[in-house]
Design brief:
The complex is a heterodimer.
Chain A lengths: L3 E4 L2 E4 L5 E7 L5 E8 L3 E10 L2 E4 L6 E3 L9 E3 L8 E9 L2 E7 L3 E5 L1
Parallel strand pairs in A: 2-11
Antiparallel strand pairs in A: 1-3, 3-8, 4-5, 4-9, 5-6, 7-8, 9-10, 9-11
Chain B lengths: L2 E3 L4 E5 L4 E3 L2 E3 L5 E8 L6 E7 L7 E2 L2 E6 L4 E6 L8 E9 L7 E2 L3 E6 L1
Parallel strand pairs in B: 2-12
Antiparallel strand pairs in B: 1-4, 3-9, 5-6, 5-10, 7-8, 8-9, 10-11, 10-12
Classes of the chains: A mainly beta, B mainly beta.
């Protein structure tokens, strides 16, 4: 099925560990974004990309890295996990023809202990 | 910077009744879009309705409609004939017309529909 696929769905990390959250879309969408969802704060933008090779920071980028080597993939890297990064992470994509029609992945629940 | 405020952390309604969720936003832009997203317990983000700021007519989607007051910067969601499946977290979101992939979300409102 066409859409945005996020893996893993759940993850527990120890403080200081690194990991990559995967996001892939098969709709040839130009725009991709990462958000984190925390109680009482809604979703906040971490990083976004307007095309392969182009990324930029959002509202809360510290502690996260991204790259966009292909149109399909937009991985989010946690360099050294901290308990403050415990959250639910969403990847979203949209296309130039309907740039405001976002498709969201099903999310990754990350716990850092 | 744009801000979106949902002042109702929780709301409840009886099945078949009508409920209105509030959202206000702050922007100096003239070209923007507003959205309501539904997030059921499955965690999936589902677009409920969207409104282009340049359109004066309020958007409607079946039982869902909005009251868009541009001057007051208000964007409320009305759910008519509430159903048990409407129980979810609802997020109001904003994006500038020149931004791509940069949604700004409100804090969310948990809606519970009681039988």
């Amino acid at each position: 099925n066409a859409g945005v696929t996020q893996t893993p769905k759940f993850q527990v990390l120890k403080t200081g560990q690194s990991m990559t959250l995967q996001c892939a879309q098969d709709m040839n969408h130009e725009y991709m974004s990462w958000y984190r969802q925390d109680p009482g704060m809604g979703l906040r933008l971490i990083h976004y990309s307007v095309g392969a090779g182009i990324t930029d920071q959002g509202e809360v980028p510290n502690g996260y890295n991204v790259s966009r080597s292909t149109t399909e993939d937009f991985p989010l890297r946690l360099l050294s996990a901290a308990p403050s990064q415990t959250s639910v992470y969403f990847c979203a994509s949209s296309c130039l023809r309907d740039r405001y029609g976002y498709t969201f992945g099903s999310g990754t629940r990350l716990t850092v202990v | 910077a744009q801000t979106v405020t949902q002042s109702q952390p929780e709301m409840s309604v009886q099945e078949a009744e009508t409920v209105t969720l509030s959202c206000t936003y702050d922007t100096s832009e003239n070209n923007y879009y507003l959205f309501w997203y539904k997030q059921p317990p499955s965690r999936q983000m589902i677009l409920v309705i969207r409104q282009e700021a340049y359109k004066q007519q309020n958007a409607t989607e079946n039982r869902f409609s909005v009251n868009f007051q541009k001057a007051a910067k208000s964007f409320s969601l009305k759910i008519s004939d509430s159903q048990l499946g409407d129980t979810a977290m609802y997020f109001c979101a904003f994006i500038r017309g020149t931004s791509y992939g940069k949604l700004t979300f409100g804090q969310g409102t948990i809606l519970t529909v009681h039988p």
